[in-house]
Recover the amino acids of this structure.
């Protein structure tokens, strides 16, 4: 053992600074969780602040605003998950049917592009698109679907759809990559066999391609379900707020507001811990489900 | 080919064309607005091309001191984050990819756990404060140096390299570090290119750390953060941050929030728009790489 360690001296010299770094930035701040069980005052520090047991959590669970934030988080995440997945799969299927390699390449290149832009840029473009004289309203009025412009960004009832639209616009192309790769992995003989049996294009898509990428779909769906609480900060923060707050405030925004704006560090940390614990259960739970279903685990 | 097939092909082609238009038009329109005279833009109806060509919006952006500082900071943080990010992530990946590493399981788990458990916003804020990184340029670089996900991607690439590659060098007396630096790194160029691009894009697009840790210092501002201030002032509060571009010009309508916003949007996305088509394959490569076991 000692000889082995000596032989690997260099490896440890390389890794130990990185482990210390990780300790400082990932493990050490966990001590801040103490705040959630205190009435924390920065001036008094951890040692001087009063311990209040679970009172912060009790307050949290009795707070309407907290549950509203929870509802908004789950609502937008689930809509995003369902529509995002459907759009990505349909896009991958249709793209796969394009015969011209050049056109396919151009479509792919263009559709991945928004993924690399910041949410700031994207929300700016989206709010232009959805403005009363923007692209979407012009399109709707040109087709005589609407008489007067719809105020997409001004009314609560549209907000979740706006958020879903924004993330579909940004991520559909990017999310389709993994499905395109899965489609490319399907045995070509299957298509020939189906064709010999007289299956048309749609039947081949339905009976060969979709079952072929089913494992990928299931695994990704389940994995993403594990992240539902972690995916909702930027769109609601940048596009929502103000009059839309009731439908746009998510858990992350709740934490930001109570922590940084109001200065109630203890309550904000309690909400953060609650979110982390639920997320952790979801991530590992969904992964276990994926394993049980016999699909290959991604973790 | 049957008729239904032909119809399908045409409809499918049109759908894809529609997708392209929906993706590109917002940019194109923003470019047109940014090159149009600000006062003329207010009349509405700018679609594909500027009606009254003007470079004034860009001139006011580039002449603005805050914007210049923001641009310099954005470039600096991008370059530094990318270099350090790739160096550190590849180093960790190399060590973890060595089969003989004593305690490999523990060390790997030690890093992996941090992907799932994070202290959260408030404790992290206090950490940054404790480390005296608040209102310091280094807050843009240091906290994000080690990306565990990037480590996994690089590691799985390294594990696919033939073992004989390093074995021969080790027999010849090369140490671990020389193996890493002279043999493994050169073999990993494709995956490192991908990771470098991810790091660069991530750093360039970051605004939240400026907002949270450095918003009180004008000399630490970044392009994305300035863009965010313009955006939030334009959308709700009625406050107008574009006043940083001078009251007089505003009164004269030679610049308007809309035009400034369009110009800044283009400035903040141009580096990505320019680089992206040429490096697309590197951008995309890691996606399928990342889906392998950690």
């Amino acid at each position: 053992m000692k000889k082995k360690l000596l032989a690997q001296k260099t490896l440890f010299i390389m890794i130990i600074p990185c482990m210390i770094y990780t300790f400082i930035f990932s493990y050490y701040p966990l001590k801040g969780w103490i705040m959630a069980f205190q009435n924390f005052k920065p001036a008094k520090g951890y040692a001087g602040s009063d311990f209040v047991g679970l009172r912060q959590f009790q307050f949290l669970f009795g707070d309407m605003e907290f549950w509203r934030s929870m509802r908004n988080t789950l609502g937008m995440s689930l809509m995003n998950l369902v529509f995002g997945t459907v759009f990505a799969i349909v896009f991958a299927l249709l793209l796969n049917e394009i015969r011209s390699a050049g056109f396919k390449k151009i479509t792919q290149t263009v559709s991945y592009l928004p993924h690399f832009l910041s949410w700031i840029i994207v929300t700016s473009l989206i709010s232009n698109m959805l403005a009363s004289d923007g692209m979407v309203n012009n399109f709707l009025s040109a087709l005589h679907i609407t008489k007067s412009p719809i105020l997409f960004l001004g009314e609560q009832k549209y907000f979740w759809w706006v958020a879903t639209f924004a993330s579909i616009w940004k991520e559909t192309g990017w999310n389709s990559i993994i499905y395109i790769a899965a489609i490319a992995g399907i045995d070509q003989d299957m298509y020939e066999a189906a064709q010999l049996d007289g299956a048309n294009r749609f039947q081949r898509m339905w009976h060969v391609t979709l079952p072929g990428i089913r494992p990928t779909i299931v695994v990704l769906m389940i994995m993403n379900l594990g992240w539902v609480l972690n995916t909702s900060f930027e769109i609601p923060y940048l596009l929502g707020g103000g009059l839309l707050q009731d439908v746009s405030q998510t858990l992350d925004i709740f934490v930001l507001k109570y922590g940084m704006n109001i200065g109630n560090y203890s309550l904000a940390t309690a909400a953060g811990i609650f979110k982390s614990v639920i997320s952790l259960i979801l991530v590992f739970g969904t992964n276990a489900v994926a394993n049980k279903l016999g699909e290959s685990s991604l973790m | 080919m049957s008729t239904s097939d032909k119809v399908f092909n045409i409809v499918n082609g049109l759908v894809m064309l529609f997708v392209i238009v929906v993706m590109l038009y917002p940019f194109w329109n923003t470019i047109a607005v940014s090159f149009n005279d600000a006062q003329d833009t207010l009349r509405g109806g700018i679609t594909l091309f500027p009606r009254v060509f003007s470079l004034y919006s860009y001139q006011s952006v580039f002449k603005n001191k805050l914007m210049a500082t923001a641009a310099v900071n954005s470039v600096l943080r991008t370059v530094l984050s990318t270099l350090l990010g790739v160096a550190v992530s590849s180093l960790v990946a190399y060590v973890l990819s060595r089969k003989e590493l004593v305690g490999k399981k523990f060390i790997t788990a030690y890093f992996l756990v941090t992907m799932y458990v994070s202290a959260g916003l408030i404790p992290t804020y206090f950490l940054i404060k404790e480390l005296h990184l608040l209102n310091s340029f280094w807050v843009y670089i240091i906290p994000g140096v080690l990306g565990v996900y990037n480590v996994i991607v690089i590691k799985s690439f390294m594990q696919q390299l033939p073992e004989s590659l390093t074995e021969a060098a080790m027999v010849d007396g090369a140490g671990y570090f020389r193996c890493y630096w002279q043999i493994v790194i050169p073999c990993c160029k494709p995956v490192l290119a991908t990771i470098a691009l991810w790091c660069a894009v991530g750093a360039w697009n970051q605004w939240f750390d400026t907002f949270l840790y450095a918003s009180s210092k004008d000399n630490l501002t970044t392009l994305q953060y300035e863009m965010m201030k313009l955006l939030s002032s334009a959308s709700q509060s009625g406050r107008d941050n574009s006043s940083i571009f001078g009251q007089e010009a505003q009164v004269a309508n030679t610049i308007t929030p809309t035009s400034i916003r369009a110009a800044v949007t283009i400035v903040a996305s141009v580096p990505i728009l320019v680089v992206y088509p040429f490096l697309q394959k590197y951008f995309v490569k890691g996606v399928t790489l990342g889906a392998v076991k950690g």
Q: What stands out?
A: The longest strand of chain A covers residues 38-39. Chain A has a mean pLDDT of 86.
